[in-house]
Design a protein that fits this description.
One of its GO terms (molecular function) is S-adenosylmethionine-dependent methyltransferase activity. Keywords: Methyltransferase, Transferase. The protein is α+β, with helices and mostly antiparallel strands and about 130 residues long. It has a single domain (about 10-125), classed as 3-Layer(aba) Sandwich (Rossmann fold), CATH 3.40.50.150. The protein is built from three helices and five strands; from the N terminus they run E-H-E-E-H-H-E-E. Strands 1, 2, 3, 4 and 5 form a five-stranded mixed sheet that branches. It is elongated, with a radius of gyration of 17 Å. The two termini are about 20 Å apart.
């Protein structure tokens, strides 16, 4: 992700999903994306904010432990909040931010967990 094997200005657009949260240097990864996308091209990035997850369960102690360990296992769990600033530092034009709530329901006999977390989607032209 920090050295993408394509020439400069290769692509008209790029879509990247839930990747920046896992890379060691998100700024360098974004620099690479800007390098390979043509001037005036479009980049769509989709990243969650893992620290804002909510888990509703009939076992709150387990839910709290699960959420804590889940967010701590990610290099950049707040990337959904940080990404806009990274784009702004690149002087990207036409940045649009869309907060997308994501809800998952799992039903079982005695447990009804509900996971709710916002996902931030950014679109912009460089």
């Amino acid at each position: 992700m920090h050295q993408i094997d394509f020439p400069d200005c290769t692509f008209d657009c790029c879509r990247i999903m839930t990747t920046f949260q896992h890379v060691t240097d998100p700024k360098k990864a974004l620099d690479e994306i800007f390098r390979i996308v043509k001037i005036g091209g479009r980049i769509v990035a989709w990243e969650p904010n893992r620290r804002s997850f909510v888990l509703s369960s009939s076992f709150p102690e387990c839910a709290d432990k699960l959420l804590k360990n889940w967010a701590n296992g990610i290099l950049n769990p707040d990337m959904g909040l940080q990404l806009q600033e990274l784009f702004e530092r690149k002087n990207a034009n036409n940045i649009k931010v869309h907060i997308i709530p994501r809800i998952s329901h799992t039903l079982s006999e005695n447990v009804v967990p509900v996971v709710i977390f916002p996902v931030t989607a950014y679109t912009f032209c460089n």
